């Protein structure tokens, strides 16, 4: 099967490339390198012994994107390309609406024109807003979180409406919880440009000495130790989730959570990281981050029952692999 992965050189995309290529899929990547690095192609080659076909294309540029559909007989699309920084989306909402919505519409127009009827979309647990965990796919989505979250809700809606109009079209929306970890080789992982927004890439840079300490955003939540609780899930498990979604997809629209079903607090994650990796993580408790919620973890029964997908990797695996990637990345940066 020939699959186009938009945003395919990013943190999730690169791991999905590895899993799909390993299973014999032909993978085409469209990525404009806005938050990824061209070196990832060589890393994938080192892991898999081959590279995906790469196009430096912005999904918002319809004509450029169409080139890919004219050259390759695309059979499925995994759509990851999009901006994802929550705070930036509040400061610059038009950038987010413009980019995330336009890119998706362009892709869907091309899917329609070229008869591509298999589509996986990268959504987020953020669409649940602040509801009581475990969060279930049947729960209503909650508007009003932030423009980034709104784009996820809007795109889910666009996909559902399009699937109603085209009975041959199959789409699976995957709502990720908190992907961390890295490929066990340490060759690919999360390497955001600039100061990381998310906990794990910040934490590994503290462990590394790049930043003096971790800011922990609040210790007065109603949780086990007062710090925020999330459902951390290994990126390789998430990548495998995309493969089974592609394989088991039926016509019509469906939504699945990808998480472990377990909540871990920030302090628990820090302690596990220190224990497994034998490194110090200085931290300071600071004010809550605006927009954060106390607890978010998944109900994962639906993916288990209908996709036979379950996260296999433990929190220990996640912190070990994240740190291993950071260490290898340091070496690469020195070369
Ligand atoms: N946190 C810190 N210090 C940091 C960064 C994060 O204490 O430097 C805390 C947060 O307050 C939160 C937890 O660590 O309690 C996780 O924060 P992340 O920023 O790593 O992840 P979020 O849960 O805030 O957001 C993630 C994705 C979003 C997605 C959301 C869905 O980044 O894209 O999950 O729940 F929308």
What does this structure look like?
There is one protein chain. By secondary structure, this protein is α/β, with parallel strands linked by helices. It contains 11 helices and 14 strands. It has helices at 11-22, 40-48, 62-71, 86-91, 93-114, 147-165, 199-207, 235-248, 266-277, 301-307, 315-334, and strands at residues 2-6, 26-30, 53-55, 76-79, 118-124, 170-176, 178-180, 214-217, 229-230, 232-234, 252-258, 264-265, 283-286, 295-296. Helix 1 (11-22) packs across helix 8 (235-248), helix 5 packs parallel to helix 6 (147-165) and helix 7 crosses helix 11. The radius of gyration is 19 Å and the shape is globular. 47% of the residues are buried. The protein binds uridine-5'-diphosphate-4-deoxy-4-fluoro-alpha-D-galactose (UFG).
Short recap of the structure:
The protein has 11 helices and 14 strands. The protein is of the alpha/beta class. The model has no long low-confidence stretch (mean pLDDT 96).
Describe this protein with a few key phrases.
seven-stranded parallel sheet, three-stranded mixed sheet, 11 helices, 335 residues, alpha/beta, binds uridine-5'-diphosphate-4-deoxy-4-fluoro-alpha-D-galactose
Topology:
Blueprint: E1 2-6, H1 11-22, E2 26-30, H2 40-48, E3 53-55, H3 62-71, E4 76-79, H4 86-91, H5 93-114, E5 118-124, H6 147-165, E6 170-176, E7 178-180, H7 199-207, E8 214-217, E9 229-230, E10 232-234, H8 235-248, E11 252-258, E12 264-265, H9 266-277, E13 283-286, E14 295-296, H10 301-307, H11 315-334
Parallel strand pairs: 1-2, 1-4, 2-3, 4-5, 5-6, 6-11, 7-10, 8-13, 9-14
Antiparallel strand pairs: 9-12
Helix pairs in contact: 1-2, 1-8, 3-5, 5-6, 7-11, 9-11
The structure holds uridine-5'-diphosphate-4-deoxy-4-fluoro-alpha-D-galactose.
């Amino acid at each position: 099967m020939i699959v186009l992965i938009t945003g395919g050189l990013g943190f999730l995309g690169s791991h999905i490339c590895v899993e799909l290529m390993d299973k014999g899929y032909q993978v085409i990547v469209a990525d404009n390198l806005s938050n990824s690095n061209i070196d990832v192609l060589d890393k994938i080659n080192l892991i898999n012994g081959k590279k995906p076909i790469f196009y430096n294309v912005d999904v918002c540029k319809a004509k450029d994107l169409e080139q890919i559909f004219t050259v390759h007989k695309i059979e499925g699309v995994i759509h990851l390309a999009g901006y994802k920084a929550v705070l930036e989306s509040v400061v610059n909402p038009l950038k987010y609406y413009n980019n995330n919505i336009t890119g998706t519409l362009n892709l869907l127009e091309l899917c329609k024109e070229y008869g591509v009827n298999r589509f996986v979309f990268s959504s987020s647990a953020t669409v649940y807003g602040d509801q009581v965990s475990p969060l279930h796919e049947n729960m209503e989505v909650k508007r009003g979180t932030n423009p980034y979250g709104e784009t996820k809700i809007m795109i889910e809606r666009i996909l559902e409406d399009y699937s109603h109009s085209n009975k041959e079209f199959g789409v699976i929306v995957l709502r990720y919880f908190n992907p961390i970890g890295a490929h066990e080789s340490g060759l690919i992982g999360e390497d955001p440009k600039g100061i990381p927004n998310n906990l794990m890439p910040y934490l590994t840079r503290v462990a590394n000495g790049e930043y003096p300490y971790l800011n922990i955003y609040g210790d007065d939540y109603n949780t086990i130790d007062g710090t925020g609780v999330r459902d951390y899930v290994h990126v390789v498990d998430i990548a495998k989730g995309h493969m089974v979604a592609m394989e088991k997809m039926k016509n019509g629209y469906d939504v699945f959570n990808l998480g472990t079903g377990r909540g871990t607090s920030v302090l628990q994650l820090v302690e596990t990281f220190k224990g497994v990796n034998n490194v110090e993580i200085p931290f300071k408790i600071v004010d809550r981050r605006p927009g954060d919620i106390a607890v978010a973890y998944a109900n994962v029964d639906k993916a288990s029952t209908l996709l036979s997908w379950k996260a296999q990797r433990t929190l220990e695996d996640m912190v070990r692999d994240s740190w291993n990637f950071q260490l290898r990345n340091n070496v690469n940066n020195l070369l």
